[in-house]
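Subject: Protein entry, chain in single-letter code together with its fold tokens

Category: Structural biology, sequence-to-fold work with a learned token vocabulary.

Notation: Tokens come from a learned vocabulary of local backbone shapes, not from coordinates.

Start of record: The labelled sequence and token lines come straight after this line.
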Amino acid sequence: MSNASELLKLLLPEYLIEYFEILKFEEENNILHLYFEEKNTLPKEFSSLVVQSKGFLPEITVDDFPLRGKSVKLHIKRRRWTEVKSGNIIQRDWNLIAKGTHMTQDFAEFLKKISRY
């Protein structure tokens, strides 16, 4: 491993490392809280538009795989942009949460697999 981001990709969902900045982390009552904010990089499908960054959507909190015996909560702030010409709000299409849960898709799939045994 050549750098910290490569190591983090092994521990966290890869899209978090690629598209989000880690703002901070805290440990509280045996729960590890990791805070992420989406980078100000416009999605490729909107690269031809003139846009302005317009802040963030409300933060979401999802459960992820435990690390070293600690529960992990991911606090994620997704960015939004406004197209200058039309005033339309633009955002990435994220599937961060497994349907019907407060867990990452990977964690939900893992729990489904182990519950079958």
Notes: The chain has a mean pLDDT of 81. The first strand starts at residue 20 and ends at 28. Helices lie at 4-11, 14-19, 105-115. The chain has one domain: 4-115.
